[in-house]
TrEMBL record:
Ranges of residues in domain Response regulatory: 1-114
Domain of life: Bacteria
SMART domains (UniProt xref): HTH_LUXR, REC
Domain spans labelled HTH luxR-type: 141-206
Pfam families, per the entry: GerE (PF00196), Response_reg (PF00072)
InterPro entries recorded: CheY-like_superfamily, NreC/VraR/RcsB-like_REC, Sig_transdc_resp-reg_C-effctor, Sig_transdc_resp-reg_receiver, Tscrpt_reg_LuxR_C, WalR-like
Keywords assigned: DNA-binding, Phosphoprotein, Transcription, Transcription regulation
Name assigned to this protein: Response regulator transcription factor
Keyword Transcription: yes
4-aspartylphosphate modified-residue sites: 49
CDD domains assigned: LuxR_C_like, REC_NarL-like
Keyword check for Lipid metabolism: no
């Protein structure tokens, strides 16, 4: 689903996605409209503009996740301001891409977002990880942590370092599906919802070194 209040931009994004083989289930220009049609549209990925005429982007993120907890949200915004990026990620966005990105970069970001990666325009990933480190609480006592297997912990460490699922799979000499299964199991055990929350957990518990 594409959510952007500029018709030409919205239509262009939807067209690029369709030409790349994606099914665009909805393309809307307002936040309230997006929240209203989301259930029927049932998107796996939402490409969302930060600045909408009726609702703040962060409110749309929270509303979408409340209705569709498994949906992945890729912000596509003209703003690269630090606070805008952090607010979007803290609200639950899976990634953040600046609108100056080229078509190939955008389509790659959509593909990776659909696969569960946290995707950011160059330079923004470090900003987000830096903020999570700044906010990190004191590590919990080991006995207070949910029990992860050695392999789940190993996968978590690599994901927290910023490796894609494919890179983790190559490093551990396992399949991409096996890495996804480990991540899903870890999310379930830790009661987390997406890769961004997983990275934050790893940083807070000293597993990103």
């Amino acid at each position: 689903m594409v959510v952007d209040d500029h018709p030409m931009w919205r239509d262009g994004v939807a067209r690029d996605l369709a030409e790349a083989g994606y099914l665009v289930t909805a393309a809307v220009g307002e936040g309230v409209q997006a929240l209203r049609v989301a259930v029927a549209a049932a998107p796996d990925v939402v490409v969302l503009d930060l600045q909408l005429p009726d609702l703040a982007g962060v409110d749309v993120i929270r509303g979408l996740l409340a209705t569709l907890p498994a949906v992945r949200i890729l912000m596509l915004s003209a703003s690269g301001e630090q606070q805008d990026v952090l607010d979007a990620v803290k609200a639950g966005a899976s990634g953040y891409l600046i609108k100056s990105a080229g078509r190939a970069e955008f389509l790659d970001a959509v593909r990776r977002t659909a696969e569960g990666d946290a995707v950011f325009t160059a330079g923004l990933a470090g900003l987000v990880l830096g903020e999570y480190r700044r906010l990190a609480a004191a590590p919990a006592a080991p006995e207070d942590r949910p029990l992860l297997t050695d392999r789940e912990t190993e996968v978590l460490r690599l994901v927290a370092k910023g490796l894609s699922y494919k890179q983790v799979a190559d490093r551990l000499v396992v399949s991409h599906r096996t890495v996804q299964n480990h991540v899903q199991n870890t999310l379930g055990k830790l009661q987390l919802h997406n890769r961004v929350e997983l990275v934050r957990y790893a940083i807070e518990h000293g597993l990103d070194g």
